[in-house]
Design a protein that fits this description.
Number of strands: 19
Number of domains: 1
CATH architecture: Beta Barrel
Helix content: under 10%
Distance between the termini: 33 Å
CATH class: Mainly Beta
Number of helices: 3
Shape: globular
Radius of gyration: 23 Å
Largest sheet: 18 strands, antiparallel, barrel
Length: about 425
């Protein structure tokens, strides 16, 4: 058979190791002699234009224009075998300061669970002067899936996420999104070997190994999750060992009258397998909420979140970021008690309004997120919105002296234009 030069060159140029290389090569090889192959191409172009208004005095507004082009390829040569591939190309125009730091106090690392990866930045390269333009890319999916009567097997780069909560998912620590994330349509892919075994009509056993950098066990994760339905209630139990921490999670979802109810909770033991674990750092997180649809038009929800890893006093917010919950546990909220109501309502057949509020009860401070979306055509969407921070501003105008959580965040206003193909 003729050699696939494109596959050979990709391995030379981007030496991804192990399962990632295998998945890419399988995806890009020509399928010879296979009948009825189902090959699909899809994707989108997105533009996010954003301005930040810093809470600090005597600072000017900062702007960012992000363009994201995503290509999705999938192939199902047989009923039991399928491949998936996705690549993001992202040019950015922004203030040079934003290439080195975020305007927000806390963020979540996007690709910690990858054996090896492309250099995220195409331009500027390391060591070159930073201007106002940056070009990034991301190999976000590269997987092969094989199905049998007994189980589904997946190997490669894919999304791994859990939880039924609407705003904060305590069990979702592999690649979570923060509340102020603008583009949450596709979860960040991680390198995983995964087996899903159906049990009964609606039950499932889901287990797998998520690889860390260079196959380092201390940077990897292994999970076992069971799901079942009983008494018209969905139950899910999760055991997850990640970076030497142990998470035990429970997720319950059901209907109550005409409303939906969810309870998602996780308790994390910090390095329980070490000779001398520090049990004082163990923490509990939980989200409980209700949602309801009024007359089939207005949808509303409210969620309470408890963050046992957070600080009780605002002056301790930044020093608390050294705790394992923030360095490896996917936690980004700084306080302890939160309320998060939200509503969505169509204004016309093509225009809808949505609004959410994340309220830190202890500060108190608030992050308000209104948005208006316009469906221009079937695959063309336009929206405008923002994240408005309300609360005490940093003391003495110093970024390191928080008096409230969201009062220390910048205001953010954005427009979004999306085209799907």
């Amino acid at each position: 058979m003729k050699e696939n030069n494109s596959c050979r060159l990709s391995v030379i140029s981007f030496p991804l190791r192990g399962i990632v290389v295998l998945a890419i090569c399988l995806m890009t090889m020509p399928l010879v002699g296979i009948a009825n192959a189902e090959f699909q191409v899809s994707g989108y172009y997105k533009n996010f234009s954003t301005v930040f208004n810093s809470p600090l005095p005597d600072t000017s507004m900062v702007g960012v224009v992000v363009n994201r082009l995503r290509l999705n390829l999938s192939d199902a040569p047989t009923d039991s075998l399928s491949f998936a591939f996705a690549y993001d190309f992202t040019p950015r125009v922004q203030d040079p300061l934003l290439f080195s730091q975020s305007p927000f106090a806390v963020g979540v690392a996007a690709s910690r669970y990858r054996v090896a990866d492309l250099d995220a930045s195409i331009y500027p390269r390391e060591g070159t002067p930073v201007g106002s333009v940056g070009i990034y890319h991301n190999l976000d999916r590269a997987s092969v899936q094989f199905s049998t009567d007994f189980a589904d097997f997946l190997m490669g780069r894919d999304a791994v996420a859990w939880g039924s909560a609407r705003i904060v998912n305590p069990t979702d620590v592999i690649a979570p999104y923060t509340y102020d994330q603008l583009d949450t349509e596709d979860r960040v892919g991680v390198d995983v070997v995964r087996v899903r075994i159906p049990v009964g009509v609606m039950g499932e056993v889901d287990t797998g190994y998520i690889f860390g950098n260079a196959f380092d066990f201390d940077k990897s994760a292994v999970f076992l999750r069971t799901q079942l339905n009983a008494m018209e209630t969905d139950f899910s139990v999760l055991l997850l060992e990640f970076q030497r921490d142990l998470l035990i999670g429970l997720d319950v979802a059901r209907g109550i009258g005409g409303a939906g109810f969810w309870l998602e909770t996780a308790y994390v033991f910090v390095t329980p397998f070490d000779d001398a674990p520090d049990t004082s750092e163990d923490y509990l997180r939980a989200s409980v909420g209700l949602d309801y649809s009024f007359g089939g038009e207005t949808y509303a929800f409210i969620e309470y979140h408890f963050n046992g890893a957070g600080a009780k006093r605002s002056e301790n917010y930044l020093t608390n970021l050294e705790q394992p919950a923030y360095t490896r546990g996917g936690v980004y909220l700084l306080g302890t008690h939160y309320l998060a109501p939200g509503v969505t309502r169509p204004l016309t057949p093509l225009i809808s309004f949505s609004g959410q509020i994340l309220f830190n009860v202890s500060d108190p401070s608030t992050f308000i997120a209104p948005q208006i979306a316009y469906n221009i055509a079937e695959d063309i969407h336009l929206s405008v919105g923002g994240f408005v921070s309300i609360g005490k501003r940093p003391k003495n105008g110093e970024a390191s002296e928080f008096q409230s959580e969201f009062g220390s965040y910048p205001n953010l206003f954005f427009s979004s234009f999306r085209v799907y193909f």
